[in-house]
UniProtKB/TrEMBL annotation:
This is Drug:proton antiporter. Residues 267-379, 725-833 form the ABC3 transporter permease C-terminal domain. It comes from the Bacteria. The keyword Transmembrane applies. Keywords: Cell membrane, Membrane, Transmembrane, Transmembrane helix. Pfam families: FtsX. The keyword Lyase does not apply. It is a multi-pass membrane protein. It comes from Rhodobaculum claviforme. The lineage of its organism: Bacteria, Pseudomonadati, Pseudomonadota, Alphaproteobacteria, Rhodobacterales. InterPro entries: ABC3_permease_C (IPR003838), Membrane_comp_ABC_pdt (IPR038766). It is found in: Cell membrane. Its main location: membrane. GO terms for cellular component: plasma membrane. The chain crosses the membrane at residues 21-41, 260-287, 308-341, 361-378, 399-421, 427-450, 772-794, 806-829.
Length: 844
């Protein structure tokens, strides 16, 4: 009965329209729309990767080996299980045009293919030609195709000749697209495509050189990819082979998209929290306007529970409208922008309506709306009819009944739990939720402190005679909650933006300022042991070279930890994703800092020992005496951890997670790597001389690699900034709503001041000063909160140093002042133009 009566009253009240609820609807629609859009784009990419998985991978399954090709037995085993088999080899090298001092060189990622490539998909070239024609050059030299950017860098056109190692190739075409480009992962240089057999005379694929071989398989109908991997490991347990199937054709891209998408969803949740402040303020303002209605209902015998249900139903209906608008916005935006997004994405995507992210966004929206409206709704139940006739006291601090407090806690737990479960990064979600809750609490405390400070400042002798300033301070410190609404809504949005700005500026500083001062000029790989003396002789006599570091280089896959499968001990840890660099040394390199254990004697010749990274050991719970099993070139080596040491990768110098005693690795085929620290004017001569003397050696320009990392960072920073911008926009809408809600009070205030003799200019100045002071307070709180958040991200997530960046901080304060000033002035015109007599008569 009570429910039916409440539903009838709620329905009749809603016939009056949605006046006063545009802030409520806008906040919900923006928050839900942002989360739905991010989730839809992520789901579209995942659907594209699933649909085109075989094309991206280059087959139904792929088996990879590090620094070697499959031996005869392994290849026969693969051929017996594949309908078709294709062999790929991938490595870095230098593409050289010309000879002597006039030679041009550029780093390239070389891909060698066989006659079966591609098993799936079709590559495109310019000029358009079949695959076989690309590799059969008219001159009789081996043919090759290049990325257009590499051709432009070297000044090449089809028909020109270039070298890889000591082998000449004729450029026949530019690469327009590779069907399996997404499976290659990150490359240090643009692509060059050749036949593998043409590399036999290049001196680039010798013993110990750095390359990966990949065997793509088209499986017979009904074949089980999981069984393929299990059978391969059983047949060749020491091969070190890695198996991937088309269900995860590009795991690196999937991982990146998943993590960035999850992070953006969490930023969107911060925006929804900002919107929640607006939702709460809109509900309070709405209930204040319904004072007479509630009073009449109470007088006619309606219980507090009935009144609560009436307005809960109304809010529920409006929530449905706001969530639906957000779903339409977030669901349709990626579909409508599909041509633009597809042109920018490096992977296929299926842009359509995806139910799962829309349902997730709807869940967040409903939980947020309930969380932020339950408290003001519950407080109406506790107010008596006599008090309601005098108007709802918005500053009441009476707590709702315990049942509503418990319901609020349950809603908060459900929202945080949903974010932790659905985002895929539970710890980040929990940390973000805790940060948002703390930020809201800090902002509420800051608002209270600002009101107290303003109230005290308005009584100071120094402000006497400054009427506009005194009026502004008195209004801020008064009983109305304008200061709290402004600082909460704008402060949280600016805090998110400030945190993003601090993280972005610190990352850019680490890449653009700190690293170049310490980083080497070149990173040389594939130096043969007999080439090392000549390599060092050339650099030793160069006055522009300040330092050269070298180390033997192998790569291995961690397969077991303390004789248990590594995937069981360290599931999900990045050290297991692919192979890792391994070196050997009789004595600790200069600058080595041991944190536990001791280095082995220089003449040690016992069982294998390993020096391991201290940081990773802590992650895995390892210490001195534990064992690691590493597969190197198909051989399993089990070594005891002799010591732990600090490994610093921030210098871009040589750093190995694992270093073994020489007896464990010295006999294995391997090459050496070197870092060369030199002045910029010496770099060109170093590259020319070493590349000319040792054409098989590959030089990686470190500054160029840093630039590529900076470009990738720019994309992530841009996406994050856009998400933070959406949060700030929501905060600005809430701010406008707060200004609009306070317009009626300002009309009365202006009428009283005019009656007392205040001019319009002085009243406008007091309104402007009020806005400026509140904006400055919100911006100042945001600087502190954003700085702390930025420090936390850089210190605990990025594991990097933090330096406060003042430019973005100043911009935050200026932005906060301007935002509140514009919102305040926009709603100052009606109070200034209202006639005092009419306003005061309406109060009778």
């Amino acid at each position: 009965m009570q429910l039916a009566i409440a539903a009838r009253i709620a329905r009749r009240e809603l016939r009056g329209g949605l006046r006063g609820f545009w802030v409520f609807l806008a906040c919900l629609a923006l928050g839900v729309g942002a989360i739905a859009a991010v989730g839809s784009v992520r789901a579209s990419i995942e659907a594209g990767l699933a649909r085109e998985g075989a094309v991206i991978l280059g087959g139904d399954a792929q088996v990879s080996f590090t620094y070697r090709f499959a031996d005869t037995a392994e290849r026969a085993w693969l051929e017996a299980r594949a309908a078709r088999l294709s062999e790929i080899v991938d490595f870095r090298s230098m593409a050289v045009v010309g000879a002597g001092a006039d030679a041009e060189r550029a780093l390239t990622q070389v891909k060698g293919v066989d006659g079966n490539w591609p098993l799936v998909g079709t590559p495109r070239f310019d000029p358009d030609m079949p695959v076989d024609a690309v590799f059969d050059a008219p001159s009789g030299l081996p043919g090759a195709a290049m990325d257009r950017v590499l051709m432009d860098r070297l000044g090449l056109a089809p028909g020109d000749t270039f070298r890889l190692g000591v082998q000449d190739f004729e450029l026949t075409a530019a690469i327009v697209s590779e069907p399996d480009a997404g499976a290659a992962g990150f490359g240090f240089g643009p692509r060059t495509l050749v036949r593998t057999e043409a590399l036999e005379g290049s001196a680039l694929l010798g013993a110990g050189t750095l390359f990966d071989s990949r065997y793509r398989l088209l499986l017979p109908p009904g074949a089980d990819p999981d069984a393929l991997g299990a059978d391969l490991r059983a047949a060749f347990p020491d091969s070190g082979a890695r198996v991937r199937d088309s269900r995860r054709g590009a795991p690196g891209i999937e991982f990146f998209v998943d993590r960035i998408g999850a992070f953006l969803v969490l930023v969107g949740l911060a925006g929804l929290a900002v919107g929640g402040v607006g939702v709460s303020a809109a509900v309070r303002a709405y209930l204040e306007r319904k004072t007479e209605t509630i009073a009449i209902l109470k007088t006619l015998g309606a219980s507090g529970g009935t009144i609560f249900l009436v307005y809960l139903m109304q809010i529920g209906a409006l929530t449905a409208v706001g969530v639906a608008a957000g779903l339409v916005l977030g669901g349709l935006a990626p579909v409508l922008l599909a041509p633009v997004l597809e042109a920018r994405l490096p992977v296929p995507a299926v842009f359509t309506l995806h139910p799962a992210p829309l349902a997730e966004a709807a869940l967040y929206g409903v939980l947020t709306a309930l969380l932020f409206t339950l408290w003001p709704l519950a407080r109406t139940e506790e107010v008596r009819a006599a008090a309601l006739f005098r108007g709802i006291d918005g500053s009441s601090r009476a707590l709702p009944r315990p049942v509503y407090l418990a319901a609020t806690a349950a809603l908060l737990g459900a929202l945080v739990g949903a974010a932790a479960w659905l985002s895929g990064v539970a710890l980040l979600a929990l940390a973000s939720a805790a940060a948002i809750v703390v930020a809201l609490a800090v902002l509420v405390a800051a608002a209270w402190a600002v009101r107290r400070a303003a109230r005290g400042a308005s009584r100071l002798r120094a402000v006497r005679g400054r009427t506009a300033l005194r009026l502004a301070l008195g209004a801020i410190g008064g009983p109305r909650e304008e200061a709290t609404s402004v600082i909460l809504s704008l402060g949280l949005g600016l805090t998110v933006l400030a945190a993003v700005g601090q993280v972005e500026s610190n990352l850019r500083a680490a890449i653009e300022r700190d690293l170049p001062d310490r980083a080497p000029a070149y990173f040389f790989v594939d130096i043969q042991t007999d080439q090392l003396p000549g390599f060092l002789d050339r650099l030793g006599g160069d006055s522009g070279v300040s330092n050269v570091d070298t180390a033997p280089m192998l790569r291995g896959i961690v397969t077991r930890i303390n004789d248990r499968p590594a995937a069981e001990v360290a599931a999900g840890h990045w050290i297991l994703r692919g192979d890792r660099g391994v070196t050997y040394a009789a004595a600790p390199p200069d600058g080595t800092v041991l944190t536990a254990g001791a280095w082995w004697p220089e003449d040690y010749n016992g069982p294998p020992l390993v020096s391991f990274s201290d940081e990773i050991a802590r992650d895995l719970g390892l210490g001195v005496g534990d064992t690691l099993t590493v597969n190197i070139l198909g051989r399993e080596i089990t070594a005891e951890i002799a010591n732990l040491r600090v490994v610093d990768f921030t210098t871009a110098g040589i750093g190995f997670i694992m270093a073994m005693n020489p007896g464990a690795l010295q006999a294995a085929p391997h090459t050496h790597i070197a870092t060369v620290y030199a002045t910029p004017d010496a770099e060109a001569a170093i590259l020319r001389d070493l590349a000319g003397q040792f054409p098989n050696i590959t030089a990686v320009p470190v500054r160029e690699a840093i630039d590529r990392a900076a470009q990738a960072l720019s994309g992530v920073a841009a996406a994050t900034a856009w998400a933070a911008g959406a949060t700030l926009l929501t905060g600005f809408i809430v701010l406008i709503g707060a200004a609009a809600a306070g317009e009626r009070a300002r009309v009365f205030e202006a009428a009283v001041l005019k009656t007392l003799g205040a001019t319009r200019g002085r009243i406008l100045a007091s309104f402007a000063l009020r806005s400026v002071l509140l904006g400055a307070a919100a911006g100042s709180v945001a600087i502190v909160g954003g700085g702390l958040a930025g420090w936390g991200v850089m210190t605990f997530v990025m594991d990097a140093s933090f330096r406060f960046e003042p430019v973005s901080a100043i911009a935050i304060v200026v932005g906060g002042v301007l935002a509140t000033l514009l919102a305040g002035l926009a709603f100052a015109l009606r109070p200034l133009s209202a006639r005092p007599a009419r306003v005061l008569r309406d109060q009778d």
